[in-house]
Amino acid sequence: MRRVLKQVGLLYVVLVGAFLAWYIASGHKVEFLVTVVSAFTALLALPVAVVTVLHSRSGNAGPALVRLGDVADQLAQAVRQQWEAEAQLRRLNDPFPLPVTWEAADADLVESWSYLKELAEDWPGQRPEADSAWALSPTGLAGKGGDIIEVFERVPTRRLVVLGEPGAGKTILLIRLLLALLERRPSGGPVPVLFHMASWDPARQDLYSWMADQLIRDHPALQTPPALTPQPSPGTEACALLEQRLILPLLDGLDELPEPVRALALHAINQSLPARQPLVLSSRSAEYRRALTPPVGTTVLLNGAAGIRLLPLEPAKAAAYLERDAGGPGTGAAARWSRVNASLGTGIPASQALSTPLGLFLARTIYNPRPDEHLVDLAHPDELLDQARFPTREHIDTHLFTAFIPAAYRPHPHHPTRWSTERAQRTLTFLAHHLQHTLDGTPNFAWWQLPKALPKHGVAIAVGLTAGLIGGLAGGLGFGLPFGLASGLVYGLGAGLTNGLLFGLPCAAGAAFITSSAKERNPSSGIRWSWRGKSWLIFGLATGLGFGLVTGVTNGLAVGRGYGLALGLTNALAAGLMGGFMGGLRSVHPDLDKAVGPGAVLARDRRTFSVMTLAGGLTGVLALALAQMLVLVLALGYRPGLPTTLEFGLPQGLGYGLPFGLMLGVVRSVWLEFLMAQIGLAVLGRVPWRLMSFLADAHERRGVLRQVGAVYQFRHLDLQRHLAQHQP
What is the rounded distance in angstroms from the CA atom of residue 225 to the CA atom of residue 406? Predict the structure, then answer.
């Protein structure tokens, strides 16, 4: 690569030398050339200044040397902000935290307690007084609510399996543990991070690589190389944090993996994580038991792990929760729950469904009024007792999931919705179907993966045609406007449409190739100029040189041999500068101070696209201004002023530079692909025209979605699976 770069640079130097020799031999004054080159050099600094300003605004102050412990501290702050906000949106403390209780897991699902103590005591550097905090036996792990942090620290190995029935509150308990661990975390210590296992394919990706990818997805700046580590560490800051055990993984939802790979996942965890690595893993009880004893192979226990099993909610506490959420005892809304509350603990389907935090959340959303709502407009909770209509718990669960979306989109006095219940139901059903069937059941909806919902290459072809049409119009108008507004518009539109269609075909093919060859197209949050992107730098420089020589000489020879040589040399020099500069622009992810949300990621990626396009146009103007000035001086002996030069160089430079910048914007960002996919799906009636606003409202106001870093997820995976059963 360096050899090619040197060869292209040498060619550029030879061209510059040939141009200077020809210029001096022709008897032209050197003073004028110095003036022109100085002015152009000053103008050429403008794109760099623009990129530098935008780069500094995006938060990238350069490769500052920071300790890995400082990176962990910044990540801890981001994780805390993320999950404190999510706990508030999930109303985990409203009206009060649900008193989830648990007991020790069945002995055959975990390691023996004596073995755990012996294992921890044999660790090098283990302090003798450490065992004073350990539980004496598995029964010491029983607890409720906020006790989870103490229970975790009572385990000698600090490895814990959290088991429970569907909707029992496993994820909520992990969130509470995460926040409690952050409160007790020392500076520079390990950062607890919640990983949703549904997005992991243990048959294709090892555990560390998957966790690193998830960290980078939620905190993009962790993809930068580590600056200062105890030992030189290749790769990214995310990998370095994992290698130095500065991440405490909370793995949520082993049961959400396909059943054939659950045992493989446990084996991968045992193989990847060292014995002294703390760990928490959650799963449904029955699914975890089956994962330990696969049909083929031996039993696989999670190395060094104790376990707890969540218990059903106590009937009295579940009843108090429903009444308090309805306004408190004595209110009309709370009185509506009298018959249902009396049935709790009896074992009927309604009682079973309301014995979990998920069931209570769905029921209160459906049946309890919001401020200023009339009770007569709401369904009555007594319908849950109709065993002819709901003979089993599964029927109750299906009813609650079905009624949840209409309840979430009821008219709200303080937060009115722009979307009807039918529109919301149709969109959420489509998204669930997309996640479940197109993306293999992942819970993570990333807006940049929306193009996968349409036929393969369809969005790429649309992007290429759009970019080609815009580039052709820009070029046509750029070359037509110098000849007058009216004639320029006529010529520009005609030539632009023709060139746009012709230019759009190779652009469409190129866009299809890029999207098909790229393993994963991820968004950008800024740009900077760097020598590291040598392939694009060489491509831009070589393309500029070739384009300038061919067009300059071809067009110039039609007028005169001397003019053609001058035009070819000057266009090659100018276009080479433009191509080399633009080819060195690359996308970056500079933000580490906080976890970014989907809307912020989209805005930054859109800005990258816009800056790339405008930088191409501005650089093209400067390059063509130099070419115009030198050609007029050398071939015609005419010394134009700067206004005259810009009058011709500005529109034609935009005509050259905008298409080039536009295509680089397509390569360096994913916003245009998302926009094309959103338009296509909106035309088909699958999603609203303002999809991101809809998703933000579903998360912040309706409680249907939750936000995890840069992606959205359904409130519960069972809700996603329920909606995915229906055709969008």
Answer: 47
pLDDT attached to residue 67: 81
* Predicted TM-score of the model (pTM): 0.74
Nearest CA among 337, 356, 339, 355 for reference residue 347:
355
Please write down the long-range contacts of 640-644, taking CB distance under 8 Å and 24 or more positions apart.
642/39
CA–CA distance, 162 with 307 (Å, rounded to integer): 6
Closest CA to 281 of 126, 110, 411, 398: 110
Hey, how many other C-beta atoms are within 10 angstroms of the C-beta on 14?
10
Nearest to 628 by CA among 648, 651, 658: 648
Q: Quick one: pLDDT at residue 455?
A: 81
- Token pair 């433009």 is at which residue? 578
Cα–Cα distance, 236 to 333 (Å, whole number): 54
C-alpha distance from residue 456 to each of 134, 432, 615 (Å): 56, 19, 31
So what's the pLDDT on residue 4?
A: 42
Whole-number Cα distances in Å, 533 to 228, 236, 263, 544:
24, 17, 42, 17
Q: Considering only residues 533 and 487, tell me which one the structure prediction assigns the higher pLDDT.
A: 487
Contact predicate 265/253, CB 8 Å? no
What pLDDT shows up at residue 631? 60
Residues 634, 628: Cα–Cα separation, whole Å = 10
- For 194, the enclosing helix (H) or strand (E) is strand 191-196
Task: Give the whole-number percent of the chain exceeding pLDDT 70.
Answer: 63
- Residue 610's nearest CA partner among 668, 535, 653, 543 is 668
pLDDT at 111 exceeding the cut of 60 = yes
436-461 burial code (b ≥16 CB/10 A, e <16): beebebbbbbbbbbbbbbbeebebbb
Taking residues 104-133, what's their average pLDDT?
A: 83
Residue found by looking up tokens 């609203």 in the block: 688
The pLDDT value given to residue 581: 65
